[in-house]
Specification:
The complex is a heterodimer of chains A (about 270) and B (about 260). With about 270 residues, chain A is an alpha/beta fold. In chain A, about 35% of the residues lie in helices and about 15% in strands. Chain A has nine helices and eight strands. An eight-stranded parallel beta barrel of chain A has the order 1-2-3-4-5-6-7-8, surrounded by five helices. In chain A, strand 1, helix 2 and strand 2 form a beta-alpha-beta unit. Chain B has about 260 residues and is of the alpha/beta class. Chain B has a single domain, classed as HUPs (Rossmann fold). Helix content of chain B is about 30%, strand content about 25%. Chain B is built from six helices and 13 strands. In chain B, the strands form three sheets. Chain B has a nine-stranded mixed sheet with strand order 11-10-9-12-8-1-6-7-13, sandwiched between helices. Chain B has a two-stranded antiparallel ribbon with strand order 2-5. In chain B, a hairpin with a 6-residue loop joins strand 3 and strand 4. Chain B is globular, with a radius of gyration of 20 Å. In chain B, about 40% of the residues are buried. The chains are: A alpha/beta (about 270), B alpha/beta (about 260).
């Protein structure tokens, strides 16, 4: 992950098609185009796992079924706790086969349709529910050395609680951190960087113009300096404020924004 | 073992309206989904097939677009699908529907087991599974929560009830209706979805299954819905939980449990 930061490699989020899509062929084609474009750019494609609790196809099966070619160390798979044990192992085995090393391990958003890992599934005896901590321990134990594991940091949660969780995540094997989207600067992210100077941190940039969606997602009103919200301008400010960090681009517009980001990370 | 799973297309929304004239659910403009209880039936059938071999056929009665729920069944492991679709089936109540489905099951032939969800979430009658058993003259077990044993000529099932469960052995062929405790339905893979899109699904009419026109549709339905009202809107309420965070959390869990929410 340090190399990504040194090489100014963007992390570009791509959402696999939802299970209930009525235009599967089109969505698969769009996914392929986006994935290949990110690979050609030398960026890291970050494939989400049932984002927002919406049932979607898995990143690894998309790569396998569509015959996509992940470039070495340029694909990151999100992995949450809403899987059966069988599916979890299949995803991890596929990642290993595809030589995908980077996993973002998160607790995730559930839904009625999604199964949930039980503590017994991941060999946890000291908890009633599986979180990213138990999942990290399981992956580290069952797939030693195969993966580089990252975790999420939410600066909008109560700070003491979030830092305590981060301690557990790092103790469980996490080696890099990706924040929730921040606009320009966030003092809690500043404290995260000060507390863990040796750990690569990737700050998430909100690339949608709909800033109110971010407010809804994090549960707080996000105020911005630009009105209407300008994601590209804000991305540039984020780079200036977080020089030593990587950047994760969420909801990036491939048609309108992709070509504009080429020169933003100087 | 040849297993038929009966599935139903239901509105995938809580905002379904009822036509005041026909008393039927207005399905136009509302996205249809597989009846959630039927997904457990499909999963159980596929698990049995994976365990002892055989074939799973998903069957539904509805308009042409009901093929969506059949393709969902194929995407998670069913082998074949049959759509019963004919204007002559329109207006069928649960008895006439059971008759049509039973005739289709006879036409499929060589069926050892029929599995249905315990009920559909739109009609909520829980009558079609038992109705099929009655039409076929087969034994049935409802509210099945586990299938601990299966042989060529009989099946053991645990039937859930308020105070626990009964272990029953029934001769095959038989009809089961299942509850959601029976399994965790798998999520379709992309490969499964793509295969399901390509599969050909035969459409059978009333004539194809040799149905007696006096026993299907409105003519064959001994019951009529004479009045339907949507349930009253749920009242919103709030409750303040005082005390330490630990006390509040305990009270919250207690209140949620009282409402069977956790």
């Amino acid at each position: 992950m340090k190399k990504h930061i040194e090489n100014k490699t963007y992390h570009v989020e791509i959402l696999p098609p939802k299970q209930d899509t009525e235009k599967l062929e089109t969505d698969l084609e769009n996914f392929s185009v986006k994935f290949n474009r990110v690979m050609e750019s030398g960026y890291c494609a970050c494939l989400t796992d049932n984002a927002m609790g919406n049932l979607a196809f898995q990143g690894t099966e998309m790569i396998e079924e569509l015959g996509l070619e992940p470039r070495k160390d340029l694909v990151m798979i999100h992995l949450n706790t809403f899987h059966t044990k069988g599916d979890l192992d299949r995803i991890l085995d596929s990642c290993r086969t595809l030589k995908i090393r980077q996993l973002l391990v998160i607790s995730g958003d559930g839904s009625d349709r999604l199964p949930k890992l039980s503590p017994a599934d991941v060999g946890a005896t000291d908890t009633e529910a599986v979180t990213s901590v138990e999942l990290l321990r399981y992956i580290g134990r069952e797939y030693p050395g195969d993966f580089e594991l990252g975790v999420a940091f939410n600066p909008y949660e109560p700070e003491e609680h979030e830092f305590a969780k981060m301690e557990r995540k790092l103790a469980a094997g996490a080696v890099f951190i990706i924040t929730q989207p921040v606009i320009e600067r966030h003092e809690v992210v500043d404290r995260l960087l000060a507390k863990y100077p040796g750990i690569p941190v990737i700050v998430e940039a909100w690339m949608s113009k709909k800033i109110d969606l971010l407010s809804e997602a994090v549960g707080y009103e996000i105020k911005t300096a630009t009105d209407p919200f300008d994601p590209i301008a804000t991305l540039k400010i984020l780079h200036k404020n977080y020089l030593g960090c990587g950047v994760y681009l969420s909801l990036l517009g491939f048609k309108t924004q992709y070509d504009l980001i080429k020169d933003t990370w100087q | 073992m040849k297993i038929v799973v009966c599935v139903k297309q239901v509105p995938g929304s809580n905002d379904a309206k009822i036509d005041p004239e026909t008393k039927r659910i207005v399905r136009e403009g509302i996205k249809a989904v597989t009846n959630p209880f039927d997904t457990y039936a499909v999963e159980e059938a596929v698990r049995i097939k994976e365990k002892i071999g055989g074939e799973v056929v998903v069957l539904t009665m509805g308009p042409p677009r009901a093929d969506i729920v059949l393709r969902e069944g194929i995407s998670v492991g069913a082998d074949k699908a049959v759509l019963l679709s004919d204007r002559a089936f329109g207006g069928s109540d649960t008895w006439a529907t059971s008759y049509a489905l039973a005739k289709a099951i006879e036409k499929i032939g060589g069926v050892d087991l029929v599995i249905c969800g315990k009920q559909a979430i739109d009609g909520d009658t829980a009558q079609v599974g038992p109705g099929i058993a009655a039409q076929l003259g087969w034994p049935q077990a409802t509210y099945v929560m586990e299938v601990p044993r299966l042989s060529e000529d009989s099946i053991d099932v645990k039937r859930m009830h308020e105070d626990g469960w009964d272990l029953c052995r029934i001769a095959l062929p038989a009809v089961l209706t299942v509850v959601k405790d029976i399994n965790q339905p798998r999520i379709p893979t992309l490969r499964g979805r793509l295969a399901a899109q390509k599969i050909g699904i035969p459409t059978w009419t009333a004539a194809d299954i040799g149905a007696d026109s006096a026993l299907i549709g409105l003519n064959g339905s001994p019951t009529r819905v004479v009045k339907t009202n949507p349930p009253p809107a749920r009242e919103k309420a709030s409750m303040k939980l005082d005390g330490t965070p630990a006390d509040s959390a305990r009270k919250l869990v207690h209140e949620l449990r009282l409402r069977s929410l956790v």
